[in-house]
């Protein structure tokens, strides 16, 4: 089987997920369809005097010990859970031996406050020179905060082949990881790979930085109501964490070994601009370009798209720009669009991968997840956002949008198995 450009079709044979709604695809998906929110007050660290005190937290077993886990450790733990679930469903390879490479999307990392405070206590002085001296020969700190270290450990654990690729493209990271995996299979470099996005950035420093950008919702009194994509009273996104993994395979190879095909990644499109560190260019060229490129890569006309899984962060500007892009691409006949972030929050580096998983499930179950907290329509948002309640629908092709800070944009087209 080949696509319209003569390339191998890329099938998805296994998926795994961790979200603020639960561990595993089944729990996250069922609660998503039920319109439940995973947003709650942060209890992992003090939030006194912070403007935002809520997030989509994932509580790991290690959290019960009381010592806060750093972001890279959280990423590795959640990624491993998602990969294990995806591999179990795909039933490929043997334990500890996967016949292809790993593409890991994860956030940038740096030494965080807890280990810095620990070094300051050891040094007896809050200076960088003293902290650097105390850190000498601390191999544990170096390995924890080595960006590529997470991918290396996951690769060793699951026995993937070749050098693991770790990347970050802001909020498009998870989709970028999938795109790299798809292209590797299309080039014939491998017949199977693991692509995933994971993020554990709900810690004090990241929360403060996003708050200083005025990007976060401050609706702290009702956490479950805080994420309000496309709604008139939206006031920012809600930080969250999670992970999603996909086993990607050459379609013919997957069929030959008797694998169950969940769906296809039939198109990938990317487009970037250099307009601003956090904002997209108001002319929308990069957003439009990413959407157009994904459809062209899939060989589809806009009218063939059944549903759009929105980037839908709930910030005033992003939702306005996505509405603009939708109307420019689809005109008056835009398909339904909804935002998973209304329920699980914005999982940042994991978002593109999680939303690809949910797009595949929408095709599998012929059901669209809702955009919750849609109480008052914004007159400037003229789309069918599947308000508040999931609905049955005929779903063949889904466009999944990921628009990142710095103008890094990736869109994916997920499709059902060929008839």
Short description, anyone?
The protein is α/β, with parallel strands linked by helices.
Structural write-up:
The chain is of the alpha/beta class and 419 residues long. The protein has one domain (10-110, 145-415): 3-Layer(aba) Sandwich (Peroxisomal Thiolase, Chain A, domain 1), CATH 3.40.47. Helix content is 33%, strand content 18%. The protein contains 13 helices and 15 strands. It has helices spanning 25-33, 71-90, 113-123, 128-134, 139-144, 149-158, 173-186, 204-212, 251-256, 285-298, 316-330, 341-344, 351-365; strands spanning 10-19, 22-23, 40-41, 54-55, 102-105, 165-167, 192-199, 242-250, 263-272, 307-309, 337-338, 367-368, 391-392, 397-404, 408-415. Strands 1, 2, 5, 6, 7, 8, 9, 10, 11, 14 and 15 form an eleven-stranded mixed beta sheet that branches. The longest helix is centred in the N-terminal third of the chain and has 20 residues, at 71-90. Pathway: Lipid metabolism; fatty acid biosynthesis. One of its GO terms (cellular component) is cytosol. This is 3-oxoacyl-[acyl-carrier-protein] synthase II.
């Amino acid at each position: 089987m080949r696509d319209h450009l003569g390339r191998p079709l890329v099938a998805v044979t296994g998926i795994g997920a961790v979200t603020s709604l639960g561990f595993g695809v089944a729990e996250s998906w069922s609660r998503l369809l039920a319109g439940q929110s995973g947003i709650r007050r942060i209890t992992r660290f003090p939030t006194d005097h912070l403007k935002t005190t809520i997030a989509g937290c994932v509580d790991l077993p290690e959290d019960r010990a009381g010592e806060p886990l750093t972001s890279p450790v959280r990423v590795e733990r959640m990624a491993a859970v998602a990969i294990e679930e995806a591999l179990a469903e795909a039933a490929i390879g043997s334990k500890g031996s996967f016949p292809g490479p790993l593409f890991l999307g994860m956030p940038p990392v740096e030494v965080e406050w807890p280990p810095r405070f620990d070094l300051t206590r050891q040094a007896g002085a809050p200076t960088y020179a003293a902290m650097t001296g105390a850190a000498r020969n601390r191999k544990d700190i170096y390995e924890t905060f080595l960006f590529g270290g997470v991918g290396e450990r996951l690769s060793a654990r699951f026995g993937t082949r070749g050098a693991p690729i770790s990347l970050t493209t802001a909020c498009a990271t998870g989709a970028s990881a999938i795109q790299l995996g798809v292209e590797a299979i299309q080039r014939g470099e491998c017949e199977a790979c693991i692509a995933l996005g994971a993020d554990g950035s709900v810690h004090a420093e990241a929360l403060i930085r996003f708050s200083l950008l005025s990007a976060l919702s401050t609706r702290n009194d009702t956490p479950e109501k805080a994420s309000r994509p496309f709604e008139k009273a939206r006031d920012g996104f809600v930080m969250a964490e999670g992970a999603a993994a996909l086993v990607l395979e050459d379609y013919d190879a997957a069929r030959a070994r008797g694998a169950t095909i969940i769906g296809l990644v039939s198109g990938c499109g990317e487009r970037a601009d250099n307009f601003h560190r956090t904002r997209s260019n108001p002319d929308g060229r990069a957003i439009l370009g990413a959407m157009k490129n994904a459809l062209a890569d899939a060989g589809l006309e806009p009218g063939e798209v059944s549903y759009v899984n929105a980037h839908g962060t709930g910030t005033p500007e992003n939702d306005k720009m996505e509405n603009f892009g939708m109307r420019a691409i689809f005109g008056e006949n835009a398909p339904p669009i909804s935002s998973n972030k209304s329920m699980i929050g914005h999982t940042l580096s994991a978002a593109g991968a999680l939303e690809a998983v949910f797009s595949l499930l929408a095709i599998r179950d012929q059901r669209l997840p809702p955009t919750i907290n849609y109480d008052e329509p914004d007159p400037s948002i003229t789309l069918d956002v599947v308000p508040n309640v999931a609905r049955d629908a005929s779903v063949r092709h889904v466009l999944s949008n990921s628009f990142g800070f710095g103008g890094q944009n990736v869109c994916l087209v997920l499709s059902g198995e060929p008839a």
